[in-house]
């Protein structure tokens, strides 16, 4: 028995010694680790602000280190963030209580026994900038998180926002059920996965002299699996889903319900070129208790030269304040003066982008009702012209190598939408004649045939356009670009109301 107690006592002493040594090691390494993490965060913040105006920067204010724990304070500064037409600047402070490894107490309480270098527990600090957020969150920190840092540089994080409620002087109410996001990352965030969820957010607006309106979003989910490229940004897959969106609108307080709203994105890099797709899906649309239909859209891009595009984005970001100022002065097409060096660099980057033969496509835009489905697709292929100084017509001819579009318009779907419109206008089912509804689709088909813009096959109105080598093939009829443009303008003119 004494021998057993001695062995156990020895193990306890050994573990305590290891933990003390590990904590000391962590304390010595922590300043460097925090500096690297903040530097990486600022790179990501800079990239995320491209195109939205303004700037953001994270800095370490103080670090108090002890044997088993440290306390760090950070500040994030956001300057000239454009919200609507107005720039906004603000600062937020965070306090971070860092437990040194290898066995931080918060992880032990959660039965997480894998040794880690440190466990970070940060919260938004209450100050003049954040005081209002603490009010709407009921005094609980509006943002807090935990991150475990492994000895191999990997991270395991959870970020949470508590339930919040905000009410303005007029009685409008915003309610938020809270948010939780879990993320993992390899060393230097080379690969990142995340998933998050929020149960509900609702906004009820009351305005004097206007009917109230309400929007409620429920079942929000997001996931992602991303890898950092040598160019500093991430590629991979991500998804955002909303189970249901419900809106109550107008004097009659009619209800719009959208279910199974999804966005799925995927991108990959091959050498210096980027390829990606973004898909949108609406599973069901219902208005005023009447079924409308469902919809899908798929966008894609191929062969985007990354170094050249990054150079163009960097130039745009640098000149963005001048462009915004010109736009504020009322210039419809704002421009800024460029030096000869800038012109040469921008021209070289544009030609490099075009030399990769990029393609941009709306691969599918579809809408489906109970009795029919319509589809549309469009793709544009580009190439490098001999010079960007060519006459405009010749420049476009060399730069745009191919355009393809296809339209399949369902006559029964047109009839379904005509019947829906009649119901929304107050007509009863008895008043809506099936024959009249069917004739709506037939009438559209007849107009399409007369305009030479489409053909009709059974229940489908079909139109296809293919451009290449300066010629247009429209529904099997070949014509020049000028003849095609004349046909389009003639049909648009026929649609104008006559006095």
Overview of the structural elements:
This protein is of the alpha+beta class. The chain has helices spanning 2-48, 105-109, 131-136, 306-328, 340-355, 392-399, 411-424, 434-450, 481-495; strands at residues 55-65, 69-83, 86-100, 118-124, 144-149, 155-161, 164-167, 173-176, 179-185, 191-205, 213-228, 234-249, 254-270, 273-287, 290-305, 359-368, 373-382, 400-410, 455-457, 460-468, 471-474, 477-480. Strand 16 (359-368) and strand 17 form a beta hairpin. Helix 4 (306-328) packs across helix 5 (340-355) and helix 7 crosses helix 8.
Q: Can you lay out the helices and strands and say which pair or pack?
A:
Blueprint: H1 2-48, E1 55-65, E2 69-83, E3 86-100, H2 105-109, E4 118-124, H3 131-136, E5 144-149, E6 155-161, E7 164-167, E8 173-176, E9 179-185, E10 191-205, E11 213-228, E12 234-249, E13 254-270, E14 273-287, E15 290-305, H4 306-328, H5 340-355, E16 359-368, E17 373-382, H6 392-399, E18 400-410, H7 411-424, H8 434-450, E19 455-457, E20 460-468, E21 471-474, E22 477-480, H9 481-495
Antiparallel strand pairs: 1-2, 2-3, 3-4, 4-5, 5-6, 6-9, 7-8, 8-10, 9-10, 10-11, 11-12, 12-13, 13-14, 14-15, 15-16, 16-17, 17-18, 18-20, 19-20, 20-21, 21-22
Helix pairs in contact: 4-5, 7-8
